[in-house]
TrEMBL record:
It comes from the Bacteria. Residues 15-280 form the Fe-S hydro-lyase tartrate dehydratase alpha-type catalytic domain. Pfam families: Fumerase. The lineage of its organism: Bacteria, Bacillati, Bacillota, Clostridia, Eubacteriales. PANTHER family: FUMARATE HYDRATASE-RELATED (PTHR30389), L(+)-TARTRATE DEHYDRATASE SUBUNIT ALPHA-RELATED (PTHR30389:SF17). NCBIfam families: PRK06246.1 (NF004885), ttdA_fumA_fumB (TIGR00722). GO terms for molecular function: 4 iron, 4 sulfur cluster binding; fumarate hydratase activity; metal ion binding. This is Fumarate hydratase. InterPro entries: Class-I_Fumarase/Tartrate_DH (IPR051208), Fe-S_hydro-lyase_TtdA-typ_cat (IPR004646).
Length: 282
């Protein structure tokens, strides 16, 4: 179309196909570095051994191009599209076609059911959960973050009153991790969303999982909160795979958004130690 940059259905489908396979077979450099640091710092001999096995498993998956974990997740896709981009053939359809191909060609487990109550498998891991953001420009950025449900099922949401304050939020986050115990396969990444509305807080918690480990919030008081929560969570003693130790979480990432004068929503979303996500810009 005149004045717009065209990106084809096939370009998008092919890109998403590759991202699905890569996210499920290769951990990010930041996660790899965090695990190496955790291995060196873990006080529990058993915990240190477990982290060593996790690192070995990750290396085998990358070298042999096989899934890091048998739960290859529901495909969660974050799309940032420029206003000057025209997608030929339909963006949502192209993304789902890419997921379909990636899970088939990558020999990834198909884990999606057509109806949450009838429970019949779709057979191709579609549809994906897709979040869109429209921005100025002519680029298309796609991030694929397959989400396993051992960790997803540990999610929690609480609608606090403003008077409850930050101490109630700290208690809620720590208790969410404590209740999760070994279920999300620690060491984990903890995403926290504060503000907005009920669904916005949940989205923020999910988006927080995508931030590189070691990068703290640019807001000074939120960065301090992240560090305090990480210390308290690691003092719970849950440890790697829930068998004890001082490495329960690799990081805590907190994202915030303006909210109503009468509200203080807070959501917690947890990732396992794989923390799968990878991205491309077209």
């Amino acid at each position: 179309m005149p004045g717009l940059r065209t990106i084809t259905f096939e370009q998008i489908a092919s890109a998403v196909e590759g991202l699905c396979i890569k996210a499920n077979t290769q951990i990010g450099a930041d996660v790899k570095e965090a695990l190496e640091k955790a291995h060196a710092a873990e006080a529990s001999p058993l915990g240190k051994t477990i982290i060593g096995h996790i690192m070995e498993n990750n290396a085998i998956a990358e070298n042999e191009l096989v899934p890091i974990c048998q739960d290859t997740g529901m495909a969660v896709v974050f799309v940032t599209i420029g206003q000057e981009v025209f997608v030929e053939g339909g963006l949502t359809d192209a993304i789902n076609e890419g997921v379909r191909r990636g899970y088939e060609k990558g020999y990834l487990r198909k884990s999606v059911v057509k109806d949450p109550l009838i429970r019949v498998n779709t057979g191709d891991n579609t549809p994906a959960v897709i979040h869109y953001d429209i921005v100025p420009g002519d680029k298309l950025h796609i991030m694929v973050a397959p989400k396993g449900f051992g960790s997803e099922n540990m999610s929690q949401l609480k609608m606090f009153k403003p008077a409850d304050g930050v101490e109630a939020i700290k208690k809620f986050v720590i208790e969410a991790v404590e209740k999760a115990g070994p279920n999300p396969c620690p060491p984990i990444v903890v995403g926290v969303g504060i503000g907005g509305t009920m669904e916005k807080a949940s989205f923020l918690a999910k988006k927080a999982l995508l931030r590189h480990i070691g990068h703290h919030s640019e807001k000074e008081h939120i960065a301090a909160l992240e560090k305090e929560l990480l210390e308290k969570i690691n003092n719970l003693g849950i440890g790697p795979q829930g068998l004890g130790g001082n490495t329960t979480a690799l990081t805590v990432n907190v994202e915030t958004y303006p909210t109503h004068i009468a509200g203080l929503p807070c959501a917690v979303n947890i990732n396992c130690h794989v923390a799968r996500h990878t991205e491309i810009e077209l």
